[in-house]
Design a protein that fits this description.
- It contains 7 helices and 6 strands, in the order H-E-E-E-E-E-H-E-H-H-H-H-H.
- The protein is of the alpha+beta class.
- Helix 2 links the parallel strand 5 and strand 6.
- It starts with 7 loop residues before the first helix and ends in a 32-residue tail after the last helix.
C-alpha cells in the first residue's frame, strides 16, 4: 500500500471526484484566486439557517487538516444521513492557503514520493518527529543554562530536507517557484525549511497578518524577531516560511 500523504495535485483530483459525484456536496464558485493563480475552492452541503465553516491548511504545512476535511467530505458524500440538511449548511474550504500547501507538500514529496509504501513513509515521519523532539530538547537546555538560542546551526529536522529547494515545486507553477527561489537567495531563510512553509507564496503568514499581533510594533521598529525553540534560526519578522505578518519594506 502506498503512503497516504497527499500533495497539492492529489487533493485537487480528490476534490474533482467529489464534484463529479455531486450527491450531498456541491462545489460553489471559488472564493478567489491567490496572487500566483491558485483557486480557493468552496463546497457546500445542506440548506439550513445554521452555517458552519470547516477549513483546512490556513497554515500551508498543516497538511493533516486538509486530510481531515477531505475525509469528512468523502464520508458525507457517501452517506449524509447523519447531517440534518434542513437545519445546517456546511461550508468546506479544504485548502485556505493553496500556495503554502503546494510549497510544503512539494518539499515532502522529494523524500516521500507518491509510490513509496506506507511502512517506509511512516519510518521517515517518525525520524522527522524524533528530530523535532531533539531540536526542542537542545533549545530548552540552552534556555535552562541561560544561553541565547542557537541562531546559526542547522536544526536536525532541517537536515533531513537540506537538499530540497525551490526546484521541488512543479515547473507548471513557475511564478510561485521563482518567487520562492528569490526568497531563499535573499539569505534570510535557512535551508531545509520548505516543508514547514506555513505562509503564502510571498512568505507572509495570513494568520499573523492581524492588528492583534503583539509583535507588529517591534517589527515596525526594525527588530529581527526570531521564533523560539526548534525554529530559532528563522527570522519571523521577515518574509519566509513562518509567522511573518508582512514585508516591512513594502508596508504602507
Amino acid at each position: 500500500m502506498n503512503n497516504l500523504i497527499l500533495d497539492y495535485e492529489q487533493v485537487m483530483e480528490k476534490l474533482n471526484e467529489i464534484k463529479r459525484q455531486g450527491k450531498n456536496i456541491k462545489e460553489q464558485e471559488i472564493l478567489g484566486e491567490t496572487k500566483y493563480g491558485l483557486p480557493i475552492r468552496h463546497f457546500l452541503c445542506g440548506r439550513g439557517k445554521r452555517h458552519i465553516v470547516i477549513t483546512g491548511a490556513a497554515h500551508g504545512s498543516e497538511i493533516i487538516t486538509t486530510d481531515f476535511v477531505l475525509r469528512l467530505m468523502q464520508q458525507i458524500q457517501k452517506d449524509g444521513k447523519d447531517i440534518n440538511m434542513n437545519d445546517y449548511t456546511l461550508h468546506f474550504i479544504p485548502i485556505l492557503n493553496p500556495e503554502g500547501y503546494l510549497i510544503s507538500t512539494s518539499a515532502v514529496r522529494k523524500i516521500i514520493p507518491r509510490e513509496m509504501n506506507l511502512e517506509e513513509a511512516e519510518k521517515i515521519c517518525k525520524e522527522y518527529y524524533k528530530a523535532y523532539k531533539q531540536d526542542d530538547a537542545e533549545a530548552q537546555k540552552r534556555r535552562d543554562e541561560g544561553l541565547e538560542p542557537d541562531r546559526k546551526t542547522m536544526k536536525h529536522h532541517q537536515e533531513m530536507f537540506s537538499n530540497v529547494d525551490y526546484t521541488a515545486i512543479p515547473a507548471k507553477y513557475n511564478d510561485l517557484r521563482e518567487n520562492i527561489r528569490k526568497l531563499y537567495e535573499s539569505g534570510n531563510i535557512p535551508n531545509g525549511t520548505m516543508q514547514v512553509w506555513s505562509a503564502n507564496g510571498d512568505g507572509i503568514d495570513m494568520q499573523a497578518n492581524s492588528k492583534y499581533n503583539r509583535n507588529l510594533d517591534r517589527i515596525e521598529n526594525g527588530e529581527k524577531i526570531y521564533l523560539e525553540r526548534r525554529y530559532s534560526n528563522i527570522i519571523s519578522s521577515m518574509p519566509g516560511p513562518l509567522n511573518c505578518p508582512y514585508d516591512v519594506k513594502k508596508r504602507i
